[in-house]
Structures are given as structure tokens and as C-alpha cells.
Amino acid sequence: MDKPRTLVILLPEGELLSCSVVDSYQLLEFAIEASGSQDQLLYASHKEYYDLNDKLIVKTDVHWKALGEIDLLIAPAFLGDFNGFVEGNQELIQWLGGHQKQIKRIASLCFGAGLLAAAGVLDDKPTTTHWMFAEQLKSIFPQIQLKKNCIITEKNGVFTSGGAYTSLNLLIHLIEKMYGKKIAVETASVFAVDLSRSSQSEYFIFNGQKQHKNDLALHTQNYIENNFHRTLNLRALAQMANTSERTLVRHFKSSTGNTPSEYLQRVRMEKSKQMLEGSEKSIKEICYSVGYNDLSTFRRTFRRYTGMNPLNYRKEYSLTT
Q1: Which residues, in sequence order, are CB contacts of 144 under 8 Å at separation 6+?
Q2: How far is CA 198 from CA 39, 86, 105, 317, in A?
Q3: With b meaning 16 or more CB within 10 Å and e meaning fewer, what string describes 45-67?
């Protein structure tokens, strides 16, 4: 008989997203019972009771310092200021960094990637998180390999997931690895988890990277955002900015992380998404209105940036139907 495995949900100091904690427990508990295994599922914290919110108090099973070998450790999503979260969890962060060799699989859900990054677990690892937190996380921990459009990343037993309920996809993925495909599908069916998603791009609301002080890049960003529907190329943008193409690309990419062409496509895609969600314009009309002259190019670009074709995106996210 196989030795029972230890699965742990960490409860760090600070406010946690309650559904991140509860969903993790419910899905893993179901998988353990459905598989007939004797694995133990534990809440780990430095205090006996953890107050998730005014109506939900969790009794913890063990102090994380008392843990030995761990088969799966989950870091749920936190809420609030990240710097304050890190400051309040210094002892846990140090323990996690020193204990990771005794953990077979480590996974973060949504904002929980911040805890793993602070402990050094995500160094040189592909990493995803909630899109609102992605750029901040990368700026604080440049050693991570940010993959902000991914639902799930995985390397050498380290897993991260994207925003909010996309964490369910990672939990199902982990269940499949630990308990097999049949149990994973059964769990997904019971909890209505969509197994088809591989990208969180369609949730990625374009937010121009303007937290810099480069006037040339900022001027070009504003121009692109106001003229995306026109025929724009690098030569035209350089002439507008009264500089050389090479200088514009250097300044723009170092300030925003995108080339001017990439930034233009992202603006066009976000405008397209907004129209698909909130208007009854045809896909052809949207294609032309955001600056494309060829429908097949528009569809191909839209799929590359969102992981979906325009028609399926409208069916999924339209606010008018």
C-alpha cells in the first residue's frame, strides 16, 4: 500500500481571498475521497484559528514549522498591499525558501505568486499571476520569467496560475498529476471547471505601461492610442515624433516593454474586445474600425493575442445578449 501523501494549504499572515482557500480545500478533498487514497489535507498556519472573513473561521491543522516532507503545497491568493504582506510574513518566507527541497510540488494561486517569488521559489521559473499584479511582480522580482497571458505555468515541480477563478484550472491540473485523468475529469465535472482554457488573455484589460518618465515614449503611446484606427507604421511614428526609427524603438521598448508595433496591436485588440463585448457591430465592421484592411489578418491577430477567435469571444463575453 502506498504511503499517504501530505497536501498543505498555507495560510499566511494577512487577508486572503477566501474562495482561493476554500476552493482549494474542496477540490482536493473531493479528489482524495474519490480516489480512495489515505492522503492527508492540512491547513498550515502560525496560529490555531485563521479568520478568512467575518463569517468564515478556519481551524488550522499544523504550524508550518512542524512540516516535514510535503507532496503538494498551495499558496492561495492574498489581498491588499504586497509590501505589507511580505513584511508580515518574513519568517514564513524564510522557512519556505529553505524548505522547498522537501516539497515535491509547490503551487501559487493568482496573487499567491508573490509569496513564492519573495521566497525565491520562482527564480528563473515561468510565472503567471493576476494581470493586475503581473507588472508589479516582475518589477520587484526581475529574475522571474513572466508569462502573464498563461492560465498555468509549470517547471520542475513549481506551478503558478492566473487570475481569480482560473486558479481552478491549476487545481484540476494538479489533481490529474496526483490522482489521474479520471479523477481530474470527475472533479472538474462536479465543480463545473472549464478544462478547455489555456490562456487568460481574454481577461487581460489593456493598461498602457506609462509608469515611466520617458517623454518620447509617452508621446508616442498617446498618439497610438488616439490614432490606432489609422494606417500606422514605424516610419510614420518616427516622423510624428521627429526622431529616427532606431531611436524611437530603443526608447519605446526600454520604457514600455513593447515595440511600437506590438503596442499598436495590443491597443487595437483591446478596442476590438470592447466592441465585441458592448456593441452589435459585425466582426467585419470591427476589423475595419480598428485599422485592419484584411479580415483574415484581423482574425489571426485576435487569436494570437487572446487565444480565441472573435466570434467565440463575443459569444462568451458579450454584454448585449
Answers
A1: 117, 122, 123, 124, 125, 127, 137, 138
A2: 29, 30, 20, 17
A3: bbeeebebeeeeebebeeebeeb
Q: How many CA atoms lie within 13 A of 161 on its CB side?
A: 25
Report the residue count for the chain: 321
Task: Name the residue with cell 490606432.
Answer: 228
Q: Locate the DSSP E strands across 47-112.
A: 49-53, 56-59, 72-75, 106-108
* Residue carrying C-alpha cell 499566511: 12
In contact, 48 and 10? CB cutoff 8 Å: no
**pLDDT, average across residues 261-284:** 90
**What's the topology of domain 6-200?**
Rossmann fold (3.40.50)
| pTM greater than 0.70 | no
Could you tell me the fold of the domain covering 215-317?
Arc Repressor Mutant, subunit A (1.10.10)
The mean-pLDDT minimum among 47-51, 69-73, 85-89, 98-102 falls in 47-51
179: left (phi over 0), alpha (psi -120 to 50) or beta: alpha
Kindly give the pairing relationship between strand 56-59 and strand 49-53: antiparallel
User: Mean pLDDT, to the nearest integer, of 134-138?
Assistant: 93
Q: What residue spans in the chain does CATH classification 3.40.50.880 cover?
A: 6-200
Distances in Å between the Cα of 106 and the Cα atoms of 112, 170, 201, 271, 298 are 11, 11, 24, 37, 39
Q: How far out from the chain centre does Cα 145 lie?
A: 12
In this model, does residue 182 exceed pLDDT 50?
yes
What is the average pLDDT across 248-259?
91
Grid cell, residue 88, equals: 508580515
